[in-house]
Specification:
The protein is an alpha+beta fold. It has five helices and nine strands, in the order H-E-H-E-E-H-E-H-E-E-E-E-E-H. Strands 4-9-2-5 form a four-stranded mixed sheet, with helices on both faces. The chain has a three-stranded antiparallel sheet with strand order 6-7-8, covered by helices on one side. It has a two-stranded antiparallel ribbon with strand order 1-3. The N and C termini lie far apart (45 Å).
Length: 173
């Protein structure tokens, strides 16, 4: 009897509408490319933590969002690991190293068929890269301010960063 009561409470809580999307967001390629769910999650983490930038590993995103109402349960399906947001300050050099690491395996022959989870979904950052002669080259990394202005990522500068505890504690290398 108690379990039935808890199940009903969970249904109510998980069925609560917490947002609305005007179009669907796909997650099927978040491990190898920028994706709509990744943009939403990274932007939400950055907004909630009030940081300069946010990085989210693509492997932590597990479901799409359909157009229309977004229920709390949908968020738990997309982000099932209950990964707490961590906020700290990093050097531009450290942030650049993380960006390079997130791109590193994309030149591998099995990058599309067997991707790992390290590709980063970003907020407050723009990265240009290419695969050249079997290796990934990061061409440019820019920080995007709230007003939309861009500036080159500076190795000697410091940036406030938000990410999940999994990455903060060394997950995905």
């Amino acid at each position: 009897e108690r379990l039935f009561k808890l199940k009903a409470e969970m249904r109510t809580l998980l069925g609560e509408t917490i947002g609305h999307l005007n179009s669907s967001l796909q997650a099927f390629h978040c491990r190898v490319a920028e994706c709509g769910v990744g943009n939403l999650v990274a932007d939400g983490v950055r907004w909630a933590a009030s940081t300069d930038v946010a990085i989210i590993n693509g492997g932590s995103i597990r479901a799409n969002f359909a157009e229309g109402p977004v229920e709390r349960g949908h968020v738990l399906q997309a982000l099932p690991f209950l990964n707490e947001v961590q906020k700290f300050t990093v050097s531009g050099q450290t942030l650049e190293a993380a960006l390079r690491h997130g791109l590193a395996n994309l030149a591998e022959a099995d990058a599309i068929s067997a991707p790992d989870g390290r590709f980063l979904q970003l907020s407050g950052l723009r990265v240009e890269w290419r695969i050249d002669e079997g290796a990934v080259t990061m061409l440019r990394a820019e920080v995007i301010a709230d007003d939309g202005t861009r500036s080159a990522l500076q190795p000697s500068a410091t940036y406030s960063l938000a990410t999940g505890a999994y990455l903060a504690n060394g997950g995905d290398g």
